[in-house]
Design brief:
Blueprint (H helix, E strand, L loop, with lengths): L1 H17 L9 H17 L7 H26 L10 H8 L19 H19 L2 H19 L6 H6 L5 H14 L4 H21 L3 H19 L7 H8 L1 H19 L5 H23 L1
Helix pairs in contact: 1-2, 1-11, 1-12, 2-5, 2-8, 2-10, 3-5, 3-12, 5-6, 6-8, 6-9, 8-9, 8-10, 12-13
């Protein structure tokens, strides 16, 4: 779906904006990514649901290689630049997508943007389990609810940082995406619809209880944007150049911090919008190169 590729590129550019000092905003891009991911997993497995192993293998091939390369690059390069080096256990946890508290900084893997992939991989694991159980949509939604509730209950008593991370209502944003597929496709059963509606209500309740409103204040607007784009643009074909940018969005997400850091070290602070715009173009160019010459 071409419009989804446009939204993926938009999400990646929003995240780039977060890390450009003159802009410093765009966290909404992460929530948009999560909602899109939930929709895509439901959409691509609707007609011929794959086996759990096939699904996981495809997801691992898509996500892991570039992330591992970038993570290992950070691990090797940062000490050479005089920055704090991560420990070997922290590297291993990062490569295995296990959340950990990085020296009191919170949920920050070796490649700092990788915290979102920790949630992505958990979602993929739950989705694969649901496929194995024959409950692709409702099963995933229920398991996300169960994981969040269980981790919320255990985190105060068991000092394992991953439990604290997985207790986040942000995981429900994947359910938002699956719900969009169910509503727009008309293929969602009454049971699936009721389960996802219940999970959305649960999400809002947990946000209120924890006073952590991101899944509501950013996740729901992201869901509305995805729904509106699909509802009004749908399957309209867009120029291939636009969809290619969406294809390179994962590379853009993982590499942009390197580009920004390199420019700052060679040219000084990025303190104007014109400089930020120029660096954004470079980030996109690098991501396209990585997409064509590495990912593909």
């Amino acid at each position: 779906i071409d419009i989804i590729q446009v939204l993926r590129f938009l999400a990646a550019m929003l995240v780039v904006g977060v890390h450009l000092p003159p802009i410093g905003m765009g966290h909404f891009g992460v929530d948009l990514f999560f909602v899109i991911s939930g929709f895509i997993m439901a959409y691509t497995t609707a007609e011929n649901p794959p086996s759990a192993t096939t699904f996981l293998r495809k997801r691992i091939v898509r996500v892991v290689p570039l992330y591992w390369v970038m993570t290992l690059l950070v691990f090797a390069v940062m000490p050479l630049m005089g920055a704090r080096s991560d420990s070997l256990p922290e590297l291993v946890q990062s490569l295995l997508f296990l959340p950990f508290d990085n020296d009191g900084q919170g949920h920050v893997p070796v490649l700092f943007v990788g915290w979102t992939l920790n949630y992505e991989m958990l979602f993929y694991a739950l989705f694969a389990l649901a496929l194995a159980l024959g409950a692709r949509i409702a099963g995933t939604a229920l398991m996300i609810g169960a994981v969040v509730l269980t981790c919320m209950a255990l985190a105060p008593a068991i000092p394992i940082f991953a439990l604290e991370a997985w207790a986040s209502p942000i995981l429900f944003e994947f359910v938002f995406g699956m719900a969009i597929w169910a509503f727009l496709s008309g293929q969602g059963s009454a049971y699936q619809m009721s389960v996802m509606t219940s999970m959305i209500v649960l999400c809002i309740g947990l946000c209120a209880m924890t006073e952590s409103w991101r899944a509501v204040t950013s996740g729901l607007p992201a869901a509305i944007l995805v729904w509106a784009a699909l509802r009004w643009v749908g399957t309209v074909r867009l120029p291939s150049a636009i969809t290619i940018l969406g294809g390179a969005s994962y590379a853009l997400y993982l590499t942009h911090a390197f580009v920004i850091g390199a420019v700052e070290r060679t040219s000084g602070p990025l303190d104007t919008l014109a400089m930020a715009a120029g660096v954004s173009v470079i980030c996109v160019a690098v991501s396209l190169a990585v997409y064509f010459w590495v990912e593909r």
